[in-house]
Amino acid sequence: MDAAEAKDLLRDANEDEPVFLPSSILDKITLVDIPDEVAIKIGLLKDGIIHLDWSGRLFKDQDQIKGEADYIWTRKYWYSAIGLEHYIDLVRRAVEVRNTVHGDVDITDYEDDGAYINMTFVVSTGQKNLGKAYQCVKSLCQELEETAENAADEASKRLSEIASRLSGWGSQNLDTLVDAVEKASSNDERGRSLEELVSRLFETIPGFIVKDRIRTATEEIDITVLNDSNDPRFKRESAILLAECKNWSDKCGKNEFVLFKEKIDNRSNRCSLGLLISWNGFKTTVTKKMLRGSREHTLVVPITGKDIRAAIRNNNFADVLASCWEKAITT
């Protein structure tokens, strides 16, 4: 789409349907090109599906372009150590402080129905160029989110420290933990050993910092890793990596692979790499699923218990992880 086509879409638009424009042409659209009451959403049409770059809308309001950020979070896919309602409260407080100091942002809606939390706020950009207005809104939203995320990270760190202290974290060597994973008499004991084993291995990778460890009722273990690696293979990946350990006696299959990928995709575009650890390996359906998704931005790296045992035996987890990564991108 070029600027002329975008202006034609805007001119023919009505207030009931938003106009979808790619971010590449926004700098060529100004206030005079935008009719009153018309909402603009930023995204591209791919294979008949609109892929949004940002959740919200831009619109004309008298002598400037404003943006309305629209946040919808679901408790089903919320994995932070603090509750979703507490995180949203942090974002809301950041918006209120920003409004008090600068007067350029205002909450317009807030609703919590028990499953979802929805919050919208309007940003006054003072801009007459659509591209500049869009960058202004995105920058402010990022600033507000970072304020809340920093507070959430601090709370998660404290909870992880307490949990580690209570469970005797670090008192066993890695070989003992491997034995515990394989010979434990209960799922809980096996799960705790696997959680510590995998987390401690990630901490041996230069630039990797384990931030959150969340064990679920199904004995799946979610681990969030902060990626500041200088290894060229991992440096190109997102700043946040997600790992999940399958504490099962059976092999991991396609359905688990798909669900894990959905978890990665639901991290607000902040995660591009997932590490799926299945102690007893993977079914052939996982490889087939990886082949079908090989062109996607998100990468899932399968890691088996055999891989981990070899890494501990040879003291080279960084090399093993890199090898698993290379296999995943060449599958």
Q: What is the count of helical runs?
A: 10
Quote the average pLDDT: 83
**What are the low-pLDDT stretches, counting only 5+ consecutive residues below 50?**
none
The largest sheet has its strands arranged as 8-9-10-11-12
Question: Class by helix and strand content?
Answer: alpha/beta
Inertia-based shape:
elongated
Biggest pleated-sheet summary: 5 strands, mixed
CA-based gyration radius:
23 Å
Give the N-to-C terminal Cα separation. Answer: 34 Å
What's the helical proportion of residues?
A: 40-55%
Question: Could you describe the 3D structure shown?
Answer:
With 331 residues, the chain is an alpha/beta fold. 43% of the residues lie in helices and 27% in strands. The protein contains 10 helices and 12 strands. The strands form 3 sheets. A 5-stranded mixed β-sheet has the order 8-9-10-11-12, sandwiched between helices. α7 crosses α8. The longest helix is centred in the middle third of the chain and has 37 residues. The protein is elongated. The protein starts with a helix and ends with a helix. 27% of the residues are buried.
